Amino acid sequence: MNDRTYDDPPADGRLLPWTGDGGKPCYVLGDGTGYVSRLADQIESVQLGMAGELIDHAAELLTEHRLTDRELHYLARQLATSLREVKRVAESRGARLPAPDPE
Fold first, then answer.
1. DSSP secondary structure string, 26-71?
2. Would the pTM count as exceeding 0.70?
3. Cα 100 from Cα 46, distance rounded (Å)
4. Which residues pair with 25 in a beta bridge?
């Protein structure tokens, strides 16, 4: 397994959906077909699915229930965590898009 943390992202590295020591980003080097890349794809899929479910749950809670401060705080923390994960997925996928053709 070749996932590592870097201060500056490697040009040919893929941002992984997890962090390393101290919350530093992890990258994998390779052609995108190895074990770590496949694991990252699976984790990203789970994260995106859970984000969708959390959004639906939050919408339901906010329209149907009167939330206590504690419940609202917990919901906000879960939404922030999910948003952070989805942002990481978007950054990772965006970095892997081919450069636009200037023509």
1. EEEESSS-SHHHHHHHHHHHHHHHHHHHHHHHHHHHHHH----HHH
2. yes
3. 29
4. 19
Tell me: the pLDDT tens digits for 40-69? 999 999 999 999 999 999 999 999 878 999
Token pair recorded at residue 100: 């636009």
Helix, strand and coil percent figures for the chain, each rounded to 5:
60, 15, 25
pLDDT, residue 12, reads 81
The letter for the amino acid at 54 is L
Q: Which residues contact 1 (CB under 8 A, 6 or more apart)?
A: 35, 36
Which of 28, 36, 35, 18 lies closest to 89, judged by CA?
A: 18
Do 34 and 72 contact (CB within 8 A), yes or no?
no
pLDDT score at 101: 85
**H or E element, residue 34:** none
Question: Tell me: the pLDDT tens digits for 23-44?
Answer: 899 999 988 899 999 999 999 9
